[in-house]
């Protein structure tokens, strides 16, 4: 039987109609080098390199005691944070992202020009346009590559990972750099003790490539819920409230948060998406070797792990060192897990996040480096 399949190539490729004998669910695709690639639905993306970067300057809880009415003890017990890294003036999200991407490229031993696409997950782009991906592409010298920014706050890295994985799974690309990078210090009100102590700056990058052995990114469960927009947002500087003296006077260019509302939502939804994802894949909590959650609050992480029934030794926590770096947290936590010898090739890994929006995400994967 011949099945007619219409293939829309990306990267400006020709639209091709391909006849494939008896293979429903299989497409044939022409890549940029002109090779014809046959792709089954089961083709997976895998992580082949991981690079991270945090700026050298550290702000400790003791430093905050001199800035706002707070204590090291309050911050540590309510959040789990001891210190966070912050940029010096003039250093932006694209700089952190570029450093992280350089590490990943060096680890894999490939040239930036070998990339097909760069996706930058961020809520603190250098500017509204051009995209931070364009700035990173230029800083890396990755000529011929395309890319874009993805905005999903603290879930942006897992969303970008999935977007990148789809380009690999479709056969469109062979090398996608997925970067989570945020400079939260650029949008924090350092007189608001309820928010400024929570966040730090940092970035992480993973390289995605096709998996030949079925290992890699297995499945995901992502959800958005805009009814939570009023619980965590930055009202100034967009089309609704363009920058003006008034928006600056009213501190509208800073993070505004209803901490308790975010906390309750995060505890409920992070567990829920994890449970759905595990059940759909016939995986139990005991099968998870490494749980790498978004690092917003140690209490949220522990409540989620308890609800899902994850093994205590599988839980990765580095919020004490970095605070919440938004899109940077999950790749930074992957790095911590590797450094601590708690993430090995072949491990079954669960990623989970909740962020402004609300955005919720969970990803199941087999670790491949
Ligand atoms: C922000 C957060 C740590 C606050 O902890 P909490 O236990 O909910 O504390 P509350 O907001 O109820 O505040 C309790 C008291 O502590 C005070 N407080 C807030 N920040 C403080 C600080 N840095 N130091 C000392 N006291 C502080 C509050 O003013 C409040 O005082 P009051 O009772 O006199 O009004 C917690 O709500 C949280 O982590 N929320 C989720 C945040 C998050 O994940 N954001 C990113 C999403 S990805």
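^ Assign residues to that structure.
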């Amino acid at each position: 039987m011949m099945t007619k399949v219409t293939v829309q190539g990306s990267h400006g490729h020709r639209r091709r109609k391909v006849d494939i004998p008896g293979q429903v669910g299989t497409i044939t695709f022409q890549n940029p080098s002109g090779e014809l690639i046959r792709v089954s639905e089961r083709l997976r993306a895998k992580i082949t390199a991981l690079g991270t970067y945090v700026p050298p300057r550290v702000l400790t809880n003791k430093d905050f005691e001199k800035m706002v009415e707070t204590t090291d003890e309050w911050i540590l017990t309510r959040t789990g944070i001891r210190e966070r890294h912050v940029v010096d003036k003039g250093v932006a999200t694209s700089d952190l992202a570029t450093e992280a991407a350089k590490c990943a490229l060096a680890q894999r031993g490939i040239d930036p020009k070998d990339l097909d696409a760069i996706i930058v997950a961020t809520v603190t782009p250098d500017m509204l346009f051009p995209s931070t991906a364009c700035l990173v592409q230029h800083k890396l010298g990755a000529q011929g590559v395309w890319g874009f920014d993805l905005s999903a706050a603290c879930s942006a890295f897992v969303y970008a990972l999935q977007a990148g994985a789809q380009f690999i799974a479709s056969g469109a690309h062979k090398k996608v750099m997925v970067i989570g990078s945020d400079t939260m210090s650029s949008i924090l009100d350092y007189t608001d003790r309820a928010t400024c102590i929570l966040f730090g700056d940092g970035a992480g990058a993973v390289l995605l490539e096709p998996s030949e052995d079925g290992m890699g990114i297995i499945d995901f469960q992502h959800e958005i819920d805009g009814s939570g927009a009023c619980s965590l947002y930055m009202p100034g500087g967009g089309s609704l409230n363009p920058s003006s003296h008034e928006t600056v006077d009213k501190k509208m260019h800073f993070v505004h948060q209803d901490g308790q509302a975010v906390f309750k939502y995060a505890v409920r939804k992070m567990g829920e998406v994890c449970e759905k994802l595990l059940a759909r894949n016939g995986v139990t909590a005991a099968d998870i070797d490494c749980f790498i959650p978004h690092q917003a609050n140690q209490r949220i992480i522990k409540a989620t792990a308890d609800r899902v029934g994850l093994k205590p030794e599988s839980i990765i926590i580095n919020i004490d060192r970095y605070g919440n770096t938004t899109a940077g947290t999950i790749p930074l936590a992957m790095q911590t897990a590797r450094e601590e010898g708690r993430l090995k090739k072949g491990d079954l890994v669960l990623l989970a996040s909740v962020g402004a929006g609300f955005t919720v995400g969970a990803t199941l994967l087999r670790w491949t480096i």
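The two ends are 40 Å apart (CA to CA).
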